[in-house]
Amino acid sequence: MPMSDAEPQPADPDPALRREHLGAFIRLRRERLQPQSAGLAGTARRRTPGLRREELAQLCGVSATWITWLEQGRPVAASAAMLARLAQALQLSVAERAYLFELAGRLDHAAPGAQPRPVDAVLRSVRHMTCPAYVLDRRWDVVASNPQAAELFLDWGAAGASPPPNLLRFLFLDPAARKLIHDWDARSHRLVAEFRADCGLQIDSPPLRAQVEALAAESADFARCWGRHDVLAREGGERRFRHPRRGELTFEQITLRPALHGDIKLVMLLPQP
């Protein structure tokens, strides 16, 4: 499935929806941060979980009203410097900070520069790999894969099919995936958080919105994971499978973003002894 330099970009999402996502994300992160970890004195009885809005406002040097309006999705202007203080106060990870800035429509000057555009050779490269390998686009459609990956993922379909196989749909809608993937509960939660990070500012573009709504309607597990607004960077590490034909399998996952394209990911699973 070739991609050219003239590939159209998704339209900018509805600003009101973006503010709604931003407010929910900030509120959930505030509620998960304990006062002690933020350097504040804890009290024995608290009516709300995590930090109060007043406490977060104190850490950021703004008014509690400003934090309230931000969480309510009101059209509040937030500077890059203010977002940086908010990210620090909420102790956001690199992926979470990038997500915060993207939803707020601000450039994070502390972040690395944007990636340039792609070469089609990345999509063809998986055919020459002997380990399971595949390429995901922004929707996590499998736009390229080799036979080893198709076998591992129970013949999820060949890339180029209409529609192409999709990693999230396989994970949540194919009953065999729950038996195949070791510790399915933890992996499914993490993958949804990684997918949200990948969506970024385009979270409410029509293709992604339609995909999320369809998955949430078809899978209560996906809807629950998505509603947590968790954001995680995609990482490598050990991946274990219980394959019905090949038994217990262990791989080391390596995920790469091609230097010429930030919207696709090359995933390789290196066999482990």
Automatic annotation (TrEMBL):
Gene3D superfamilies: 3.30.450.180, lambda repressor-like DNA-binding domains. Signal peptide: none annotated. Residues 50-97 form the HTH cro/C1-type domain. Coiled coil: none annotated. PROSITE patterns: HTH_CROC1 (PS50943). Transmembrane segments: none annotated. InterPro entries: Cro/C1-type_HTH, Lambda_DNA-bd_dom_sf, MLTR_LBD. GO terms for molecular function: DNA binding. PANTHER family: BLL4672 PROTEIN, BLL4672 PROTEIN-RELATED. This is Putative transcriptional regulator. It comes from Thiomonas delicata. The lineage of its organism: Bacteria, Pseudomonadati, Pseudomonadota, Betaproteobacteria, Burkholderiales.
